[in-house]
Amino acid sequence: MGIIKASKLVFEYLKYNDEGKVEETSRAIDRVDLDVEAGQFIAVLGHNGSGKSTLAKHINGLLIPTEGTVWVDHMSTENEEELWRIRQKAGMVFQNPDNQIIGTVVEEDVGFGPENMGVPTEDIWRRVDESLRAVGMTAYRHHSPNKLSGGQKQRVAIAGVVAMRPKCIVLDEPTAMLDPNGRKEVLQAVRELNKKEGVTVILITHYMEEVIFADRVIVMDRGSIVMQGTPREIFSQVDTLKSYRLDVPQVTLLAHELRTSGLQIPEGILTIDELVNAICQLS
Amino acid sequence: MSIKLEHVTYTYSPGTVYEMHALEDVNLEIRDGQFVGIIGHTGSGKSTLIQHFNGLMKPTGGLVLYNGENIWGENYPLKALRSHVGLVFQYPEHQLFEESVLEDVCFGPKNQGLSPDEAKERAKEALAQVGLGEEFYSSSPFELSGGQKRRAAIAGVLAMNPDVLVLDEPTAGLDPRGRDEILDQIAELHSVRGITIILVSHSMEDIAKYVERIIVMNKGKVAFDDAPKEVFSHYRELEGMGLAAPQITYIMHALKEKGIPVDETATTVEEARVSILKALGK
């Protein structure tokens, strides 16, 4: 069993009427099975309302399954006594950095998590050092968070989660509000955490270019997993992805269009170098 | 008809230690019917700039002219200006508040002094323009999907019949299809109704696909103001400003370096496809 496992997971949102009776149920997650090995980088794609965020919130027990089970490091999220330990294993980073920063100085903000966990003071500072270094924000440790750029703020938010030493980090559209540079910085930090520190990453995003680094891509639609595979396998299916309201990176789309126009170019091209090489071989 | 900024400067907290120049000597003119994109990294002055277009912010130096008139001159009708130049903020759906979609969209025209019936007519028209049909009129705005909410909020500004529509990152957080739907509808407003569109975006791909002119803001100044092809040919300098060019630009430059005679100024997938096929003699 991997670090995150879901079995026949179902989640229903309930709508109550004025008398407090259930008026309507809508199924946001519909019998999802998932098994994530420790150290993997998983990307989750899906249109707005496809169930991505609802799934993410099950991974650290913010939501409890209506049916089925979710295990985080062998602990079921239904077991309330384990909830705090689960949340230390699986940290979450959300879309808006401004909603996640509470400290008035960067280093204090990063230290908040471990302090809450009762980590001894000298250990807290060591963790703050390490976490800031991991996201490349050491130079800003004495700065006020509200003077930072969006990408820098988001990296501080990630450092705050890293300081709790989670085995897994779930990032729910962490770059949606950032400019191109901020997006690059955050993605770089996440990839390094995954590679160097071996943290399992689950990245939810609408930016197809961010997905090409993942070990595995999961595509969700109407609460179910509808596609699963390596980025190359997924992005080879341009038309299927479009039917799920998704897209492919521009370079993949251009390769696909050239292929449709009769050029001998392989499907599932992911990088600029791959496409340039493929075209050079033809000329 | 145009919006014109002459030597516009905006300084936050002037004369204090917190003094910061958000805009410095900005000169530009946006003529009627243009489709303009504004790009710049976070903190480059984009949002400050667009709030000068309809008088939400008053420059600390320089002039803002709407159709040749100084909007900060005595007796200038600022309230009317705000109906002419409609501003759609980031995440505009956070400002939805009425019980039904139709009532929410009616709020603007009612505030302009229109009768309830006239306001309703305007609202219906605006909702049709963003692709929300009759079936949505009585829905609660909070029951809509993310993309639908966003469109309802844009309709709220459209219902005031603006001549100029300024949108601050209208596609942030939307899925790819939702993004295309909104941008296609904005492009249609531009081509069918002739509304001037000013689009602020972090997506170079979207900007390249839709606009005819790009204004690049950097450190409170206009760094470039030109057609997309020209602006993206400076992609190295754009990177230095925390920006980038569309992926296509990088592909075309790499091909050119390898000796394949493509048009390196192509910025969209279709332009690139045509140019590559031609270069390979297909």
Automatic annotation (TrEMBL), chain A:
Membrane-related topology note: Peripheral membrane protein
Major localization class: membrane
Pfam families named in the record: ABC_tran
InterPro entries: AAA+_ATPase, ABC_transporter-like_ATP-bd, ABC_transporter-like_CS, ABC_transpr_CbiO/EcfA_su, ECF_ABC_transporter_ATP-bd, EcfA_1, P-loop_NTPase
A GO CC term attached to the entry: ATP-binding cassette (ABC) transporter complex
Record has Zinc as a keyword: no
Protein location: Cell membrane
ABC transporter domain boundaries: 14-247
Keywords linked to the UniProt accession: ATP-binding, Cell membrane, Membrane, Nucleotide-binding, Translocase, Transport
GO molecular function terms attached to this record: ATP binding; ATP hydrolysis activity; ATPase-coupled transmembrane transporter activity
PANTHER family: ENERGY-COUPLING FACTOR TRANSPORTER ATP-BINDING PROTEIN ECFA1 (PTHR43553:SF24), HEAVY METAL TRANSPORTER (PTHR43553)
Family to which this protein belongs: Belongs to the ABC transporter superfamily.
Protein name (database record): Energy-coupling factor transport system ATP-binding protein
Species of the source: Lactonifactor longoviformis DSM 17459
From TrEMBL, chain B:
Nucleotide-binding as UniProt keyword: yes
Enzyme Commission number, as recorded: 7.-.-.-
CDD domains: ABC_cobalt_CbiO_domain1 (cd03225)
InterPro entries documented for this protein: AAA+_ATPase (IPR003593), ABC_transporter-like_ATP-bd (IPR003439), ABC_transporter-like_CS (IPR017871), ABC_transpr_CbiO/EcfA_su (IPR015856), ECF_ABC_transporter_ATP-bd (IPR050095), EcfA2 (IPR030946), P-loop_NTPase (IPR027417)
Subunit structure: Forms a stable energy-coupling factor (ECF) transporter complex composed of 2 membrane-embedded substrate-binding proteins (S component), 2 ATP-binding proteins (A component) and 2 transmembrane proteins (T component).
Matches recorded under PANTHER family: ENERGY-COUPLING FACTOR TRANSPORTER ATP-BINDING PROTEIN ECFA2, HEAVY METAL TRANSPORTER
Entries under NCBIfam families matching the protein: ECF_ATPase_2 (TIGR04521), PRK13637.1 (NF010158)
Annotated protein name in UniProt: Energy-coupling factor transporter ATP-binding protein EcfA2
Species of the source: Lactonifactor longoviformis DSM 17459
Taxonomic lineage from the root: Bacteria, Bacillati, Bacillota, Clostridia, Eubacteriales
